[in-house]
């Protein structure tokens, strides 16, 4: 996972270097420290429980997505090292999920929804809330994918998984449900509240962000990164699926012309304890990817349409208001 | 009406974080075996061990590495109770979430059946055991590195390992200002609690929390400006210089030799 995160770190570093003034180091350090504190806050949830937020989208909105990649990574590193929250070995994966996927997706959606609207507009607030929600969901899905891929990629000869034992369907749905229901709302609540307050009292902090929107081409880069991200991961899965095609008994029959007797008797054993989690055959995996991909594409399309629709409506409104009350 | 509880929980959380880091800083300065090693040597050797833990697929190797790390803890004069407390914060959660289901989910020869339905398989038990051991091992080694190395020296080692200086500088400064912001946040909550009689509704608390967070954010923004000016007035020109010098001594060579022979032994036992 370090390998996957590395290009993003590199890109983030390059981008930050490009705009690097001597001011950057203390600014990034202070914001990383702030992100750390933000993650420590206990947020009271409706229903009397509490939760923690990541705040990646919020940082991305205020600082820009690349700076957010760096500062969330820094925070995760300090957490992993000093507080032992996440192991060293999972640090790469953690960073990819929470420091790359989360702020990028969250920021992207925020930008799409907020468009060219006013800094103090409700639309921006909605963008922040929805963006942070989907940001964390995307991070959770990617985490589920990573966990689910592990038994496919790393297992001993007798099929004993070496690391995390879950299959894709279990891991992804487990991650998704928890995050849809709890972590997502926490993230949106926090982002929404802070964003609302900043709009009211410290809109200068958000101004820096608003001026960045002129860099129109960057949009495309993010969109491209998202698409590549969405497609590359399942592609890796496909490749792995064929390589380990021996898993399905009938697949083996196609390949070898017979089913090894041991495997046949074993496969009966496999069916007995957990009929729902039979070793996934090729069809299942492929189906899963296709539906996941469709979901992503559909979601992107919907968000895009929504953004388009709102922008157009706003333009019409603006036209009307500017012709109507041109004096003000 | 969860006002008091929510504030108290936050204050407790902040205090605990401060305390745990301060304890770690103290431990990294007592004269023990690992504390005396060069940080660069420590980072490289312990990372090598962690990589080997990731590769190892046998119980004996993993158990041997665990015992080795515990011996090192003893030699470094770290209180065992504290070490285990740190070590086992994470492991139970991990065990419940990932290892226990692995007992049942992993396909294989049945070993035991629970409540007539769920079956623990031989492979499942093996997987769960390996998982827990591997996590314990890497956590133990990582903890050893962190507890016995002051943060600043650790960063010097990372810089020596060619981590970009931008990152190292940010890591160092972030660490320093986390303390300040923790104190700031803590006093905000204390102030709030000392003015609170009775309680607040969840919605009121959330609104207050949003303001508190945003204020902290604005404060850190101002602070970064001031810190920058302070750095500038001390001659900052884009590079942070430190006084700490590292030198490799006799015991570093002994430790490196030991590490190399231990790792080759592991390699030999895997591929013989």
Largest sheet, spatial ordering of strands of chain A: 1-2
Uncertain segments of chain B: none
The figure for the number of domains of chain B is: 2
**Helix percent band of chain A:** over 70%
Written as H for each helix and E for each strand, in order along the chain, the element string of chain B is: HHHHHEEHHHHH
Number of distinct helices of chain A: 12
Give the biggest sheet of chain A.
2 strands, antiparallel
- As an assembly, this protein is heterodimer
Structural class of chain B: mainly alpha
Beta content of chain A comes to under 5%
Q: What is the number of E strands of chain A?
A: 2
Classification by helices and strands of chain A: mainly alpha
> In the CATH hierarchy, what is the architecture of the domain at 2-152 and 165-210 in chain A at level 2?
Orthogonal Bundle
Main attributes of the structure:
heterodimer; A: 328 residues; mainly alpha; Arp2/3 complex 21 kDa subunit ARPC3; two-stranded antiparallel sheet; 12 helices; 1% strand; disordered C terminus; B: 272 residues; two-stranded antiparallel ribbon; 10 helices; 3% strand
Walk me through this protein's architecture.
The complex is a heterodimer of chains A (328) and B (272). Chain A is an all-alpha fold and 328 residues long. Chain A has a domain at 2-152 and 165-210: Orthogonal Bundle (Arp2/3 complex 21 kDa subunit ARPC3), CATH 1.10.1760.20. Helix content of chain A is 77%, strand content 1%. Chain A contains 12 helices and 2 strands. In chain A, a hairpin with a 5-residue loop joins β1 (43-44) and β2. In chain A, α2 crosses α4 (65-83) and α7 (168-201) crosses α8 (203-212). Residues 155-163, 210-219, 230-290 and 317-328 of chain A have low confidence and may be disordered. In chain B, α2 (39-55) packs antiparallel against α6, α5 packs antiparallel against α6 and α7 (151-160) runs antiparallel to α8 (165-194). Chain B is mainly α and 272 residues long. Chain B has helices spanning 3-27, 39-55, 59-75, 80-87, 91-105, 122-148, 151-160, 165-194, 202-233, 250-271; strands spanning 110-114, 118-121. Chain B has a two-stranded antiparallel ribbon. Chain B has 2 domains: 1-29 and 155-241, no CATH class; 30-149, no CATH class. At the A-B interface, α1, α2, β1, α4 and α7 of A face α1, α2, α5, β2 and α6 of B.
């Amino acid at each position: 996972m370090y390998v996957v995160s590395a290009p993003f770190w590199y890109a983030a570093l390059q981008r930050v270097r490009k705009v690097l003034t001597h001011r950057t180091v203390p600014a990034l350090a202070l914001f990383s420290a702030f992100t750390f504190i933000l993650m420590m806050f206990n947020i009271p949830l409706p229903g009397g429980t509490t939760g923690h937020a990541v705040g990646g989208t919020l940082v991305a909105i205020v600082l820009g997505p690349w700076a957010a990649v760096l500062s969330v990574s820094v925070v995760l590193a300090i957490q992993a090292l000093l507080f032992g929250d996440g192991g060293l070995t999972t640090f790469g994966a953690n960073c990819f999920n929470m420091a790359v996927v989360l702020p990028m997706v969250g920021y992207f959606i925020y930008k799409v929804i907020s468009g060219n609207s006013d800094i103090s507009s409700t639309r921006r607030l909605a963008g922040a809330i929805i963006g942070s929600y989907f940001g964390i969901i995307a991070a959770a899905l990617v985490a589920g994918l990573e966990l689910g891929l592990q038994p496919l990629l790393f297992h001993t000869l007798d099929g004993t998984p070496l690391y995390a034992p879950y299959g894709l369907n279990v891991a992804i749905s487990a991650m998704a449900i928890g995050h849809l229901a709890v972590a997502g709302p926490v993230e949106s609540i926090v982002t929404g509240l802070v964003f609302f307050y900043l709009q009211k009292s410290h809109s200068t902090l958000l101004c820096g962000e608003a001026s960045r929107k002129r860099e129109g081409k960057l949009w495309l880069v993010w969109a491209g990164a998202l698409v590549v991200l969405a497609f590359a991961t399942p592609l890796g899965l496909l490749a792995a699926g064929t390589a380990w095609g021996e898993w399905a008994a009938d697949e083996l029959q196609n390949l070898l012309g017979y089913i090894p007797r041991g495997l046949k008797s074993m496969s009966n054993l496999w069916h007995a304890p957990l009929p729902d989690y039979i070793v996934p055959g090729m069809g299942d995996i492929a189906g899963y990817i296709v539906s996941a991909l469709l979901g992503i594409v559909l979601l992107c399309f919907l968000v895009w349409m929504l953004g388009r629709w709102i922008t157009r409506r706003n333009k019409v409104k603006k036209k009307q208001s500017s012709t109507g009350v041109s004096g003000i | 009406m969860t006002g008091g509880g929510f504030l108290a929980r936050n204050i407790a959380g902040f205090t605990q974080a401060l305390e745990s880091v301060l304890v770690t800083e103290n431990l990294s300065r007592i004269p023990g075996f690992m504390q005396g090693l060069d940080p660069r040597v420590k980072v490289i050797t312990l990372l090598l061990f962690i990589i080997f833990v990731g590769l190892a697929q046998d119980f004996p190797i993993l158990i041997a590495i665990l015992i080795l790390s515990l011996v090192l803890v003893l030699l470094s004069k770290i209180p065992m109770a504290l070490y285990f407390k740190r070590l086992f914060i994470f492991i139970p959660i991990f065990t419940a979430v990932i290892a226990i289901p692995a007992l049942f989910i992993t396909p294989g020869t049945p070993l035991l059946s629970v409540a007539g339905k769920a079956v623990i398989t031989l492979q499942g038990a093996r997987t769960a055991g390996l998982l827990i051991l591997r996590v314990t091992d890497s956590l133990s080694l990582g903890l050893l590195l962190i507890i016995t190395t002051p943060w600043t020296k650790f960063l010097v080692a990372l810089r020596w390992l060619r981590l970009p200086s931008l990152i190292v500088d940010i890591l160092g400064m972030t660490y320093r200002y986390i303390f300040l912001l923790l104190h700031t946040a803590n006093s905000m909550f204390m102030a709030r609690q000392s003015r609170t009689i009775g309680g607040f509704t969840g919605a009121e608390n959330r609104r207050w929390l949003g303001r508190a967070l945003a204020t902290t954010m604005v404060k850190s923004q101002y602070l970064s400006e001031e810190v920058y000016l302070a750095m500038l007035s001390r001659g900052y020109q884009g590079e942070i210089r430190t006084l700490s010098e590292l030198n490799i001594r006799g015991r570093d060579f002994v430790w490196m030799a030991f590490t190399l022979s231990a790792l080759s032994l592991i390699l030999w036992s895997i591929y013989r």
